[in-house]
Amino acid sequence: MYSDTIDFQLDHREAVGQQCPSDNLPFDEVLDCLSFVRTSGPSTTRVSHRSYHFLHLPFQEFYAAQYIARHWKDHRPLEYIDFSSRKSKPAKVHPTHFLQHYKYTARYDVVWRFIAGLLGEEVSGHFNAIEQTPLDLLGPTHQRLVMHCLSEVSSTNLPIPIRTATISI
């Protein structure tokens, strides 16, 4: 998601395979077995010429949200591969800093909603990070983000201070 990659070519798969080596199956064989990933070519196409893509974009968004939520809960930095740079090591950033940097990016809109639903009792930290700078200068984009995330929060995780503040506006 970070690199806005939709079709995963051989160089993408090799970069991911280096970071997540598998002893049991080659990475391409794993991709062939996943029900939410498809290949663009026929199965007779050589592996080096195949490209893979998620069956639907919400799968990619959900798995990205799961990854971010898991690291958020464990207070661990996110590690991601920037395909546009040629660095061999993945970039590392704390989940709250990542949210603050990309919270108004349309590509991540559904990811932030998924995260609000996945964080459970720790969702107040998500809203606290949303309320920190930088903030939308005009306001509607920020309000829309907060409303979308609030719609994903379970009533058992309430009250959270943001809901009271949002309703009183």
Q: Share of helix among residues?
A: 40-55%
Radius of gyration: 18 Å
Following the backbone from N to C, one meets helices and strands in this order, namely HHEEHEEHHHHH
Count of helical regions: 8
Number of strands: 4
Please, how many domains? Answer: 2
Structural class: mainly alpha
Mean pLDDT: 81
Largest sheet: 2 strands, antiparallel
- What percentage of amino acids are in beta strands? 5-15%
The dominant shape is elongated
| End-to-end C-alpha gap | 34 Å
Strand order of the largest sheet: 1-2
Low-confidence parts lasting 5 or more residues at pLDDT below 50?
none
Question: In summary, what is this structure?
Answer:
This protein is 47% helix and 7% strand.
Defining key terms:
single chain, 169 residues, mainly alpha, 2 domains, two-stranded antiparallel sheet, two-stranded antiparallel ribbon, 4 strands, 47% helix, 7% strand
Question: What is the secondary structure topology, with strand pairs?
Answer:
Blueprint: H1 10-19, H2 27-33, E1 37-39, E2 52-54, H3 57-74, E3 78-80, E4 91-93, H4 95-102, H5 109-118, H6 123-131, H7 140-150, H8 161-167
Antiparallel strand pairs: 1-2, 3-4
Helix pairs in contact: 3-5, 5-7
Explain this structure to me?
By secondary structure, the protein is mainly alpha-helical. The protein is built from 8 helices and 4 strands; from the N terminus they run ααββαββααααα. The strands form 2 sheets. A two-stranded antiparallel sheet has the order 1-2.
